[in-house]
Amino acid sequence: MKYKLYYWAEIQGRGEFIRLALEDAGAKYVDVLRTSARYSMPKGVFALPYLVAGKRVISQTTNILLYRGTRLGLAPKDEPGSLWVHQLQLTIADWLVEAHDVHHPIGSGLYYEEQVPESRRRAADFLAVRLPRYLDYFEGVLKGQSGGYLLGRTATYADLSLFQMVAGLRYAFPVAFGRLEGRFPLISRLYDRVIARPRVAAYLTSSRRIPFNRQDVFRHYPELDSAAKKSKKT
Ligand SMILES: N[C@@H](CCC(=O)N[C@@H](CS)C(=O)NCC(=O)O)C(=O)O
What we know:
Elements: E1 2-6, H1 15-25, E2 28-31, E3 50-53, E4 56-59, H2 61-69, H3 79-101, H4 116-143, H5 157-172, H6 176-181, H7 185-195, H8 198-204, H9 222-225, H10 227-230
Parallel strand pairs: 1-2
Antiparallel strand pairs: 1-3, 3-4
Glutathione binds next to helix 2.
């Protein structure tokens, strides 16, 4: 099976969760929009990313991973295991939206520069309240396992996605996340495990990996990275 992934060519964004799964599995795929700007939105698809697998067209990032996870060897075959990975991935999807909304708290139709004061307030709350809550949750899941991955010894697409969250947070909030990360050693170790996976390592150093940038979901703005210090409880 040769997959066709349709996602923005300039950003990692949501597409990166799918790219990482395809890369780690050694799957054959074309990242279509990186070589051709022309595409049409298939019927029933609301937004990128979508994946074409034979005659099937699947959209919604988490749905794509659910659909292909087992086939790619990145999710258990049994229903409880498959649903558990799906549940973890849905939580990561929620977390990603919150990381995005730090720099776009009012609306995606406005530039960051049009919502800076609100972004500062949102960043303060994200860094002080929401980010530790998500990290606590995933650290707790890892604590219940031996083997270093969310399900134990075998990596799933949720582990690759958690790796991506850490990579994005390190880029966007080097100071604030840097201060926090030491409290979550199992998450840091999972990051190290994932980055050492041979196909992931090869991908990350290839030109297929798009560098983080300020058009992306994770963005580095020093004024937001330092917002936590200045936050006041209201
Ligand atoms: N819940 C969807 C969200 C899809 C989404 O928001 N895609 C963005 C790019 S990351 C987009 O192109 N949005 C256009 C729009 O919402 O109008 C998913 O996880 O795939």
